[in-house]
Design a protein that fits this description.
There is one protein chain. This protein is α+β, with helices and mostly antiparallel strands and 98 residues long. 23% of the residues lie in helices and 19% in strands. Strands 1-2-3-4 form a four-stranded antiparallel sheet, with no helix packed on it. It is globular, with a radius of gyration of 14 Å.
Length: 98
């Protein structure tokens, strides 16, 4: 699995969060996660809009499912989970897609 992810390092930034640190609760919140859900994967695509993606299944232990999820997001095929648009006066509007 490591070899496959090496090819993605130029396109992606991987972030790990220590969930045992209380101060990291806000970071989990940003990623749309709860401590009880860890370990988990979220994908955030920054462009004109910030789109968040959540795999439909647990992909951490399934290399093929992880690569499919990543490629689907990069190719624009994955369903957006949450999206935030920058509106007037720097107010963010959040839309949930479940």
């Amino acid at each position: 699995m490591f070899v496959n992810f090496c090819a993605l390092f130029l396109q992606l930034l991987f972030v790990t969060i220590n969930i045992d640190e209380e101060d990291h609760g806000r970071i989990l919140e940003f990623f749309g996660m709860k401590k009880e859900e860890a370990p988990a994967v979220r994908f955030i695509k920054l462009a004109d809009e910030m789109s968040k993606f959540k795999p439909q299944t647990d992909v951490l232990n399934d290399e093929a499912a992880m690569m499919t999820f990543i490629n689907d997001v990069l190719d624009g095929k994955a369903k957006v989970w949450t999206q935030m648009k920058l509106e007037h006066d720097n107010v963010y509007v959040r839309n949930e897609f479940n």
